[in-house]
Amino acid sequence: MNEPTATPRSLLATLGELSAILQAATGFPEKQVAFFGVLREQLGFDLAWLAILDPQNKCIQGRGGFVHESTHTLLTSKLPIVPGEFIDRVTSHRENFITANIKEDPRSKAWWSNTRDWGIQGAVCFPLTYQGQCLGLCLLGSRRWGLLLSNEDEQTLKVLGDLIGSAISQDKVQKESARQSMLTAPLLVLADRLRQPQQMDPVFQTVVDELYQRLTPSRTAIYWLDLDRREFWVRAVSQRFNCGPVAGTRLALRDLYGLYQELKEDRIVAITDARSDLRGFISQAYLVKFRMLSLLAHPIIYQGDLLGYLAVEQTDQSRVWQTEEHQLVRAMANLLGVTTTQARLYEVTRRQALEQTLINQITRDIRNTLDPDQVLQAAVERLGSSLGVDRCLVLNFSLDEEIEVLHEYRKTNISSASGTIPSPAHELEQRTLTSAVPVAIDDIEADFRFLSWRDFLRTSSTRSLMVCGTAYQGRPNGILVMHYCYQPHSWTSEEKSIVQAVADQVGIALGQAQLYRRSQEQAEIELRINQVGRAVRSAIPIGQVAQFSLRELSQAMEAPLTAFLFCNPNDEVVTLNHVYSQSDWMRLPEDTTLQIASNPYIQAIFGSPEPVELLLDPATAPGGPHRLLWKQGVRSILGMRLQMGKQTLGMVLALNGESKRWGNGFCQILTRLAGEFALAFSQAEAFEKLQELSRQLQQLNEYKNNMVSISSHEMRTPLASIRAYVETMISDPDLDGEMVREFMQGMEIECIRLTDLLDNLNTLVSLESRRTEWQYVQVSVQSLLKLAITRVHSVAEQNRIEVRTSIAMPPDFIVEVDDQKVEKVLGNLLENACKHTRPGCIAILSVGPSPSGNDWIEFSVKDNGSGIPADKLDMLFQPFVRIQDVMNHSKGGAGLGLAICKEIVDQMGGRLEVESIVGKGSLFRVTLPIRPIQD
Known about the structure:
The chain is of the alpha+beta class. The protein is built from 23 helices and 34 strands. β6 and β7 (133-142) form a beta hairpin. α5 (151-194) runs antiparallel to α6 (200-215) and α10 runs antiparallel to α13 (493-537). It is rod-shaped and about 215 Å long.
């Protein structure tokens, strides 16, 4: 074993130089480099190691050193303090450790391996102290065996340990001072910036950016409390890229209720590890959603009112919050509380000024122009340019129609968004669109509201938007929309407030614009209605009314095809007889029919007091009830029933070849004109009835004159004969009895003729006035024929006519009729046949089943006389019209027989028909029910 050698140079000799190095006004790293240089070069040490004590973790942290001419990782490593080893004694008891061979000393086992590699033998270790407290240690060694230290050197080591400890403490103070300065210095700059009037949101963003830069957490954010104190929302945030989107996120107060209670008491909340924190400040849902592990939060309070809180959050690991960090967050939160009011005042003042400017301009525009469209266009241009948005739109709003862009402002490099927009089907979206409070979406790709607009927004390159409903007299009438294109935009409360204020004025302008358009449309409607009304009222006959009405309606409705349907809801089918077409490519054939009872659309028209619209569906129309209209090119219909009082006359239809909605204006026109048409048709019908009544009165007058003429003639003839008989008998009293008897028989015949005439007149009057009494009895058809033949026996003999009968059914077939009146009918028909048939001819009276069914019986009287012209047949059954008048030859009679027959048959529920061929004869057919018809 080699003898120990003394240190190459006395420590005491270099103490002054070492003291100067350690007390220099430089940083400790520079002092450490110079200190190690002296130890290596002047004192000849082969090992030097400096370490700082960490009493909390019971270890020491290497701060550097050297071995020979190099360094080693061990010299900067953290080593545990093992009880009994030299590090424990030096740091605990502040004793020097001196060993001749460190690689074999049991008190330095942790160094054995490395010191053997290094060849270090002699070593000395001394504590680094400051004001009686051990801060660390310094280890010196040599490759030579042992180190001989004098008492002076040991005292020098103590002084040197105090000097190094003082330098370490001074360096720590300087670092703390620098750190404190680094943390608090931004407050002065920030406070100076916050004193300048500006908006609130930039203030908040400045604070979170500064905190994030100084404290380097995972996230810094300002959580703002809603006015209703039910939610916090993230108003400003600065965070790492991997922390997920939280901007604008809303948090229910119940998830932060414990934290809210602490903040309300103006207490700072520090959570080192949320996983093990049992105070329950934050719900588990919040922790999972924001992935938060550590939190430092301070309330933002002004004049005792909690506005929100400033939060510093760590998401990747737990964090012990230092005192200076508490102080910095507290200072910034307090500064925010003070400056918030100032920012609010500035924001309110600036917003009010801008609002007032815009409103004054819009109000002035409203007063200076009569065209509201010009006002709205000027409003969107002023608002869009003032806010700097890419696009500003005014939309209409109606649940029944598509949303249309009415007015647009856009920057020069932004495409137009004009056209129509799908109307949202979801009720929530509809309420959002009409909300008087602006609704802002910062990024449509991250917000799933307005899904029905997603395609429109992407097509127009819109990335961010704000919508605000407009209203007039409490009713929604439009939407004010702001767009930013290509990139997201964070909408400020100032922008929302300005948009809301302008939306109120836009709502008024929209309401006035709608009133203006309605007044113009109403004036146009009134003009068209008046033109049509004058044209319709000038046409009196119904056919002419229909023609004029359809033509004028087609022009007023701009419809290529119009039609009247005179029908009722119970009709199965109606033929379109009254149709007007102003287009060659859309015409309806004259025999076009339309289903009524089975047509839901037609029934809907009958059941509605308003016009009913129908757009023909290409999928169903070709095979449905409107297939004929579809084939002719009809694609849309607007129909309105024609109603006069409680009477339904039919309906009017306007048909178009385009599948389009008719609109409110055309509905108003059709509603008004339908009333005009109904009135015109009623007046025309009344006029025609009046004409018919006049004609009937004229006929009645002629009938009266004819009746008086014929009756007087028929009565005068028997009276003249009777008078001649009487005068002869008076003038010649010597007439023999045979002549007197002959005269008396002649007078009897004339009296019977006169009585028959009077009986026929009474019978006809009684039948026409419905005062006839009917005596129904059951009688066989054979008996009825015999009664009729007996009645005309004398006439047939007088005219030498053979009367034959034909029974095509059992003779005893029973019918229930008034036998006297049937006898009279058949007798009159046979009598006429006998009178108007040449002597020697045959008259046939027949009876048989009726083609009408088993409940009917048919009598017929056929002759082979001269016949009756076809154009005279309708006159036969009129009273006082005689066959001789028709045939221009006289056979006598008053012309009442056939009229009586017609009335009797009609009132018994039967039919009296005649067929005749001139030169061949006539056939009178009587069809009667076999039993009385029950009313």
